[in-house]
Design goal:
Layout (H helix, E strand, L loop, with lengths): L5 E11 L6 E7 L5 E5 L2 H11 L9 H11 L3 E11 L2 E10 L2 E7 L1 H11 L3 E4 H14 L4 H9 L12
Parallel strand pairs: 4-7
Antiparallel strand pairs: 1-2, 1-7, 2-3, 4-5, 5-6
Helix pairs in contact: 1-3, 2-3
Organism: Terriglobus saanensis (strain ATCC BAA-1853 / DSM 23119 / SP1PR4)
GO molecular function: nuclease activity
InterPro entries: BFN_sf, Bi_nuclease_dom
Length: 165
């Protein structure tokens, strides 16, 4: 169900940005070189980290509850798409199928990624988002896009901390 403008990615890991000291999820193109860091809140980072580590909780977390509710409504999570970058804010869409009817849910990327991990569904990024991030890096920072990409690609498992895929 991938569109031609969507690039499939996987979560490479979760780490703390050394400059802002904020958590970020690092997405990497499957079979390609594109790398996309998305800064997330501490609670969302914790939800993603718990799923990376497959940590069980005594009670359902919010993303577990949402996955269970979707399944209870006889729907299936088809995919998650990081769909837009607007005013330095990423947007995502969760695609669902219910009895052949396709539905979408607007979501924060951090929530969409946490849900995708629990549903074991594919994650995509719109090509326009990857292009916009590369353009913003080239125009607004001293770090060149190739340098940022090399830094992100060069992160080893120790750099990623315990939160790696």
């Amino acid at each position: 169900m991938k569109t031609p403008d969507e690039v499939e990615v996987k979560i490479r890991g979760l780490m703390m940005d050394p400059v802002t000291n904020m958590p970020m999820v690092v997405l990497r193109e499957i079979g390609g070189e594109a790398v996309l860091p998305i800064w997330v809140g501490i609670f969302e980072a914790n939800a993603i980290a718990m799923e990376i580590e497959k940590t069980a909780t005594p009670r359902p977390m919010t993303h577990d509850l949402l996955r269970t509710a979707i399944h209870a409504l006889d729907a299936e999570i088809l995919k998650v798409v990081v769909s837009e970058l607007k005013d330095d804010t990423f947007f995502a869409v969760v695609w669902l199928d219910r009895s052949g009817e396709t539905m979408t849910l607007d979501a924060r990327p951090s929530d969409a990624l946490a849900l995708a991990m629990r549903a074991d569904c594919p994650v995509y990024v719109e090509r326009s988002v990857l292009d916009a991030v590369q353009k913003n890096q080239a125009n607004g920072q001293n770090i060149q896009p190739d340098e940022m990409r090399r830094w992100l690609e060069g992160l080893n498992d120790d750099d990623m901390g315990r939160y790696k895929m």
